[in-house]
């Protein structure tokens, strides 16, 4: 049985030389700005309110498209405080969560402790996963693709996911669309603020997201992908792209989105719209988030 104890034994056996588990616990694994952002932010409750409620439901639907019906070995990389890991563990899967933010690991361990089928949570980061080759059936990259601004770092994270996955296994990667801020800016009138427009221009032309000082509530430093670029990064590491899915799709542009998502008939219409358009490459840029599904062949 591949369970929490199994993951702990693997952790003890496969921590890299010169970078022990204890050392990793003391060393900052991400930039100071990103760690501060998530230590201050309420990531543990983000998926329980507003747009986060629908994001959580939609991402679960997308992950289920690639889940095996029986118990799978899953590594949740950048899994934050463990909401997705908890859901997967409740479904009977054997899950290990890795995240570089100490606050997230503390919260995830508390969440795991309340479960009968516990998941394992440990401090670590995507470019240097402490798991053996060909271990997991599914690897989920939640935050690394947008919190690693340098392409070389993202490539390392994808290569590590490929190494850890078994032949025939699936790697799912979530990214932010290069149009995301611009669409929000247009809908909310922020595009006419000089600093916000300058930020959007940078994202649209280079992919780099760096929030202006006068918008402290925006996501910390990140990288926003073009759909075709996301595919190229995965295929460049030898993974076969199975599909790219829109997370929110165009449905969130509905001017009465929240009230319509609360009504049975109107919600059904919006979900059907998402399903019809979720893989249309011409429409992917209308979705703030994307999920790439890839497979390790051979």
> What sequence of helices (H) and strands (E) makes up the elements?
HHHHHEHEHEEHHEHHEEHEHHE
**How many E strands?**
9
Count of alpha and pi helical runs: 14
| Beta-strand residue percentage | 15-25%
Rounded Rg: 19 Å
User: Please, what is the average pLDDT?
Assistant: 87
Q: Give the fraction of residues assigned to helices.
A: 40-55%
Instruction: Give a short account of the largest sheet.
Output: 7 strands, mixed
Arrangement of strands in the largest sheet: 3-2-1-4-5-9-8
Global structural class: alpha/beta
Q: Assign an overall shape.
A: globular
Terminal CA distance reads: 25 Å
Task: Catalogue the unreliable spans.
Answer: 1-26
Can you tell me about this structure?
The chain has 298 residues and is of the alpha/beta class. The two termini are 25 Å apart. The strands form two sheets. A seven-stranded mixed beta sheet has the order 3-2-1-4-5-9-8, with helices on both faces. Strands 6-7 form a two-stranded antiparallel ribbon. Residues 1-26 have low confidence and may be disordered. It is globular, with a radius of gyration of 19 Å. The chain contains 14 helices and nine strands. The protein has helices at 4-14, 21-26, 32-40, 43-46, 51-64, 83-90, 102-113, 144-147, 151-164, 180-188, 194-206, 227-235, 257-261, 264-277, and strands at 73-77, 94-99, 120-123, 136-141, 165-176, 208-209, 222-223, 240-246, 289-295.
């Amino acid at each position: 049985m591949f369970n929490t104890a199994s993951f702990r034994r693997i952790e003890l056996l496969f921590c890299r030389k010169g970078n022990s588990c204890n050392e990793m616990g003391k060393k900052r694994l991400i930039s100071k700005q990103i760690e501060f952002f998530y230590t201050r932010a309420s990531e543990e409750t983000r998926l329980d309110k507003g747009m986060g409620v629908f994001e959580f439901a939609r991402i679960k639907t997308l992950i289920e498209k690639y889940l095996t019906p029986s118990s799978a070995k899953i590594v949740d990389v950048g899994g934050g405080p463990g909401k997705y890991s908890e859901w997967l563990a409740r479904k009977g899967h054997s899950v290990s969560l890795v995240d570089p933010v100490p606050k997230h690991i503390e919260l995830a361990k508390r969440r795991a402790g309340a479960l009968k089928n516990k998941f394992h949570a440990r401090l670590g980061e995507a470019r240097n996963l402490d798991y053996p080759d060909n271990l997991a059936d599914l690897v989920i990259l939640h935050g690394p693709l947008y919190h690693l601004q340098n392409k070389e770092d993202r490539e390392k994270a994808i290569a590590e996911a490929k190494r850890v996955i078994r032949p025939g296994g699936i790697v799912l990667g979530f990214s932010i669309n290069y149009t995301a801020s611009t669409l929000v800016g247009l809908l909310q009138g922020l595009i006419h603020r000089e600093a916000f427009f300058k930020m959007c221009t940078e994202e649209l032309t280079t992919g780099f997201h760096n929030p202006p000082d006068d918008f402290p509530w925006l996501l910390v430093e990140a990288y926003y992908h073009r759909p075709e670029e996301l595919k190229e990064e995965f295929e460049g590491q030898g993974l076969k792209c199975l599909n790219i899915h829109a997370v929110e799709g165009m449905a969130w542009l509905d001017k009465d989105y929240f009230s319509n998502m609360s009504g049975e008939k109107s919600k059904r219409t919006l979900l059907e719209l998402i399903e019809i358009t979720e893989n249309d490459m011409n429409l992917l840029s209308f979705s703030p988030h994307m999920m790439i599904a890839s497979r390790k062949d051979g």
